[in-house]
Design goal:
The complex is a heterodimer of chains A (86) and B (174). Chain A is of the alpha+beta class and 86 residues long. Chain A is built from three helices and two strands; from the N terminus they run ααββα. In chain A, a hairpin with a 7-residue loop joins strand 1 and strand 2. In chain B, helix 4 crosses helix 5. The chains are: A alpha+beta (86), B mainly alpha (174). At the A-B interface, helix 1 and helix 2 of A face helix 2 of B.
Chain lengths: 86, 174
């Protein structure tokens, strides 16, 4: 989830579509509570923006803390992958 | 034919009566499940917007209103609202001898809970736990996993400390 928002901001609908395209279908009923929770934990921030079509959207992006956590996770994952390969 | 106005959508969306009652029922359930939570209202708004998006997408595909079966599918895809409520605080009068702590945990939060309860340093508790894990050849790991099932959970160290403080002020319940 953090990786999807790395360097760009999206609104929840786009995140759901991207996850679906990555063959990781997620239900709205699960996605929104998760995003809200991440926002409460200080990993995400949001900004209302007019969208080209339709209503203004809540665009989510990473906070510094979210970015740090992503970097940590990637590091950890790389080490884990190396460990398994060895 | 009926209309519904959803949060985040300025124009009412046309739908059949059956579809409307399904949607209202779904939203009522969702609302009930997040009642009294910090960001419950936010959640419902987000959910409404996103369901509205899906309905609009259905309308742009040629249909001029949302009918019952389409609505069932949309709501089925949205799934029940995972209320993600904070872990229920344990009643202080029957506080067990150990709790797991979610915030700042490494794995299950047992070491952190133990450290808070007994006033130990958490890094020492973890070191000793890992030491015993190695000595017992993983047996402690099995015990840990079993404990995860039975030991109740606290959201933050502060919540646990507060609960402990209150429990000490109160006489035991039995």
């Amino acid at each position: 989830m953090l990786a999807l928002l790395d360097g760009e901001s999206h609104y929840a609908g786009e995140i759901a579509t991207m996850l679906r395209e990555a063959e990781f279908p997620i239900q709205d009923g699960t996605l929104h509570p998760l995003l809200n929770r991440m926002r409460r934990d200080g990993l995400l921030q949001h900004e209302w923006q007019e969208s080209p079509a339709g209503p203004p959207r809540k665009y989510l992006s990473l906070t510094t803390e979210g970015r740090d956590q992503l970097i940590q996770f990637r590091d950890y994952f790389r080490r884990l992958a190396q460990l398994i390969e060895q | 034919m009926d209309f519904i106005t959803l949060s985040g959508h300025a124009d009412p969306i046309p739908l059949t009566e059956d579809a409307k009652s399904q949607l209202l029922g779904y939203l009522n359930n969702a609302r009930a499940s997040v009642e009294n939570t910090i960001d419950g209202d936010d959640l419902i708004r987000d959910l409404e917007t996103s369901i509205g998006d899906t309905m609009r997408a259905g309308l742009t595909n040629g249909a001029n209103h949302i009918d019952g079966p389409t609505m069932s599918k949309i709501l089925g895809d949205a799934g029940p609202l995972d209320s993600a409520q904070p872990v229920q605080p344990v009643r202080t009068t029957d506080l067990p001898w150990i709790c797991r702590v979610q915030q700042g945990k490494w794995f299950g939060g047992l070491c952190l809970g133990l450290a808070i309860r007994r006033g130990f340093r958490v890094d020492w508790v973890r070191t000793i736990a890992i030491f015993f894990l190695l000595i017992t050849g993983g047996l402690l790991g099995v015990a840990y996993l079993i404990a995860l099932i039975f030991v109740p959970s606290m959201e933050t160290p502060e919540a646990y400390r507060t609960a402990l403080g209150q429990a000490q002020q109160r006489p035991p319940s039995h």
